[in-house]
Amino acid sequence: xxxxxxxxxxxxxxxxxxxxxxxxxxxxxxxxxxxxxxxxxxxxxxxxxxxxxxxxxxxxxxxxxxxxxxxxxxxxxxxxxxxxxxxxxxxxxxxxxxxxxxxxxxxxxxxxxxxxxxxxxxxxxxxxxxxxxxxxxxxxxxxxxxxxxxxxxxxxxxxxxxxxxxxxxxxxxxxxxxxxxxxxxxxxxxxxxxxxxxxxxxxxxxxxxxxxxxxxxxxxxxxxxxxxxxxxxxxxxxxxxxxxxxxxxxxxxxxxxxxxxxxxxxxxxxxxxxxxxxxxxxxxxxxxxxxxxxxxxxxxxxxxxxxxxxxxxxxxxxxxxxxxxxxxxxxxxxxxxxxxxxxxxxxxxxxxxxxxxxxxxxxxxxxxxxxxxxxxxxxxxxxxxxxxxxxxxxxxxxxxxxxxxxxxxxx
Length: 411
Fold this sequence. Notes:
The chain has four domains: 6-96, Rossmann fold; 127-200, 2-Layer Sandwich (Dna Ligase, domain 1), CATH 3.30.1490.20; 203-328, D-amino Acid Aminotransferase, Chain A, domain 1; 330-411, ATP-grasp fold, B domain (D-amino Acid Aminotransferase, Chain A, domain 1), CATH 3.30.470.20. Helix 2 (55-68) packs across helix 3, helix 3 runs antiparallel to helix 4 and helix 4 packs across helix 5 (108-118). The relative contact order is 0.11. Helices cover 34% and strands 27% of the residues. It has helices at 14-21, 55-68, 79-92, 99-106, 108-118, 134-144, 170-182, 186-190, 246-263, 295-303, 307-316, 350-355, 392-405, and strands at 6-10, 26-31, 45-49, 73-75, 128-130, 148-152, 162-164, 196-200, 206-214, 217-229, 234-240, 268-277, 280-287, 331-336, 342-348, 359-362, 371-372, 384-389, 407-410. The chain is an alpha+beta fold.
């Protein structure tokens, strides 16, 4: 018998493990010390708890395990694991995305600098600069106008995104940057949020391109419509396929491919966010992974393509490349779950929602006894409800109805 392939999985959830196991590979799963779960994840899976964000720790684990039995691929589908996995690709020469390319996605300043350097026709350059002090905020506003956006160069879930409306707001923005740097918020502990970037404000509806790259051939599975809460820039809703014209969709697909080429990205999933403007789609940011908010489930429901399984099967050589974009069947949408802050006393309606035939999934992260923080950003959401429908509008309506039936009672 041919021996099974071997995969190093860096971080991620039980869902990621399940998708990785579908490849048929034996798996070494490296998880953070405080991540919970069974010590035995099943046959062919070894679990090691270690701080994989520490470069030397992960290098030691990878070297020793690779010497005993070589890995065929290393993959991470979680934001904190992308750079560490890329470093191991470089260390072991596994042929996947290396650190130089991966870090262009995880560092928003490097992404902007790369696009300036590449100067690709059709990709609009967004003015940007690093925040140095309060005066740098005023200088940027004077040079590029108000409002403008301030956000951490790394991180996820729209955490720490500020909109500076006027020159009078620069002092408050500088004060908030200091507060965020000293915060004990989980995202501050998970990422180094010392560095912030300023970007010119781009007005227009938000969408994203969910793509997979096969040796430089970029296939956009779908364009996703994003519904944003203007008060805190949180993406509260996502729906596929986006309700845009064929011409706009074609522009997004074209710019996505040009962007991924400019970034040097050749293999794997990507989630690239755009603002749609009269002059065409403008890139806001991108991640070299499948998007969150149950987007993978929405895409599988509507297009029959599992991007997470592809993320493991493609580097292991067990999955075929998509020759062209898949065709949609119906629509699907997900919505962020929120609740009043306090200690959870009871959750109502969950079983009824899960039993509905139009429910795609629910990933509720809290239960009785858990404490809910105030809703200041996407990271403070409590999970998502996702539904399918005859088209995108129908899916959104069904999703909102299901969300209204879910009640989280707090004290």
